[in-house]
Design goal:
The protein has six helices and eight strands. The protein has two domains: 4-200, Rossmann fold (3-Layer(aba) Sandwich), CATH 3.40.50; 202-233, no CATH class. Helices cover 23% and strands 12% of the residues.
Length: 233
Amino acid sequence: MPSYMTDLEQGKELTASRDLLNDEVDSDRSDDWDETRGDHRGCLEPCILSNFSSASESKKLPQAIIIGVKKGGTRALLEFLRVHPDIRAVGAEPHFFDRNYHRGLGWYRDLMPRTLEGQITMEKTPSYFVTREAPARIHAMSHETKLIVVMARVQDFLGLKRIITDKHFYFNHTKGFPCLKKPEGSSKPHCLGKTKGRTHPNIDQDVVKCLRDFYRPFNKKFYQMTGQDFGWD
Ligand SMILES: Nc1ncnc2c1ncn2[C@@H]1O[C@H](COP(=O)(O)OS(=O)(=O)O)[C@@H](OP(=O)(O)O)[C@H]1O
């Protein structure tokens, strides 16, 4: 289980999982989490604004972006963070800084949900982590955007009150991971979809050893940088 789990202690409604750019089924996004929920997340075109949106709400460029790593539990992190009243996030992956950059910041901002002053706008696209141009592009948008690689103490990093705790989760034995008791905007428990928590094949012990040996020095360097031994070796 990714370590953030423990650290969390301290327009248009999409009808299918779609990648925002290619209108293709996004395998990274094929859980049925957001798309069936009636808010403005994941609009493909400028959204039809609700008549009820308050004048003090506006769309802002994201102040925080989950950039990776792929398969690191980025979807779970975003959905869990959304429980926080000070977080508003776009549901689908915008892929702005890799595939959609030519569309411009106006297009990007328009994808975002409306927020009140003080709320943090977020998105997640794990492929930014492996896109050479992404860091400079994000920096050109804002020097202050917080970049999150799934790891630890996200609420602290974002300067949020530690509202999301163990009590928001239950352990789902079928899925093999924690699920939300009450996701944002719903009173029913919800786990991420079938692409999350897949059965893993048995890996040859020699291969496992080889991988451990390969990553050991990198892990060590990482523990030194973060001041925390994650015990991955
Ligand atoms: N609580 C909870 N809910 C859902 N998913 C969880 C959770 N905890 C960990 N994981 C594991 O995270 C893996 C998917 O990571 P990502 O969402 O980053 O995938 S993706 O890169 O966006 O496709 C995926 O791993 P695999 O099933 O091994 O692919 C999930 O099992």
